[in-house]
UniProtKB/TrEMBL annotation:
This is CDC91 cell division cycle 91 1. Belongs to the PIGU family. It comes from Fasciola gigantica (Giant liver fluke). It comes from the Eukaryota. The lineage of its organism: Eukaryota, Metazoa, Spiralia, Lophotrochozoa, Platyhelminthes. The keyword rRNA-binding does not apply.
Length: 300
């Protein structure tokens, strides 16, 4: 059943790319961080030895621009095939993630020893999750937003894949790998960096037999993995930009300040357009603090 669902999802994406108007697609998927045209413009400027970050026109990190500039000539106009391949990776990643989540939940159920015998039938078993991977596949394959994102050739799928694999590594107990992938996601889009907190808390949810020193060691190693990976990516970007840090403003500060209020599917742009200018800084901080507060609350 899964193969027909995958084929259906890919077919819907190809149909949307062929027949949906550009205005319709961009009205749903507009994001200055993931626009295909913005990426092409950055590559164009880079190839001509011009800074892509002088006028806040390009919002992709330097290493991403460099990798895409090497990849696009190899594709020779067959970018659709690449995005189909990325969709297959995303589908496989989500299926893998669903299986890892099921295993984690069932592992947790083993420690519920204090449950009365009369209530043990209420505990979850693997049979309760038989349809879970298929439902995950359905939710992604026929999701309208993922379909139009493909039609727009949005590069958001790259950091989505990185984010999913960061969660897979975390749930599987590979915390250093999870923190390194989290750093890659943070480099690409800033906000995936908030996943570091759940990763650091994960060792403390292990069985008590693991001991506090071991938990602290794993959390510290994860934090170092994140810091070293992110620092390495920033340093490589600095060298690639000939010793300039302009990309920090164009990529990360640009996201933080909500500089682009173009109409889109997001919830923030309309409020920032309508509010009085002297409230701008207040609401920027409110919006930016909302997500970490939610992450802390959900993690604890």
């Amino acid at each position: 059943m899964r193969i027909p669902l995958v084929l259906l999802g890919l077919s819907l994406r190809l149909l949307a790319q062929k027949y949906a108007s550009k205005e319709f697609v961009e009205s749903f998927t507009y994001s200055p961080m993931d626009q295909w045209d913005s990426l092409l413009e950055g590559i164009y400027l880079t190839k001509r030895n011009m800074s892509a970050y002088d006028n806040n026109l390009v919002h992709q990190p330097p290493l991403v621009l460099h990798l895409w500039s090497k990849l696009l000539p190899l594709l020779s106009g067959r970018e659709t095939l690449l995005f189909l391949f990325l969709e297959l990776i995303m589908i496989g990643s989500l299926l893998n993630f669903s299986l890892v989540c099921i295993s984690t939940i069932l592992e947790t159920e083993k420690y519920r020893k204090s449950v009365n015998k009369s209530s043990r039938g209420m505990l979850l078993s693997r049979s309760h999750f038989d349809l879970a991977p298929t439902l995950v596949l359905i939710c992604y394959s026929v999701n309208p937003y993922s379909i139009v994102s493909f039609a727009a050739q949005s590069t958001s799928i790259v950091w989505n894949i990185v984010g999913v694999w960061s969660l897979i590594a975390c749930f599987s107990g590979h915390l250093i790998m999870a923190s390194c992938l989290c750093a890659v996601g943070c480099y690409l889009r800033f906000y995936p960096g908030y996943m570091l907190l759940p990763i650091l808390i994960t060792p403390f949810s292990l069985p008590a037999a693991s001991g506090l020193p071991r938990r602290l060691l794993r959390a510290t190693a994860s934090l170092l993995g994140f810091a070293l990976t992110l620092a390495s990516l920033f340093w490589a970007s600095y060298l690639l930009e000939n010793g300039q840090w302009l990309f920090l403003n164009s990529v990360y500060l640009y996201q933080f300040t909500f500089a682009d209020c173009t109409a889109q599917l997001g919830i923030y742009w309309y409020m920032f357009v309508e509010m009085f200018e002297h409230f701008q800084d207040l609401f920027v901080w409110v919006f930016q603090l909302l997500l970490p507060v939610l992450v802390v609350a959900l993690s604890l």
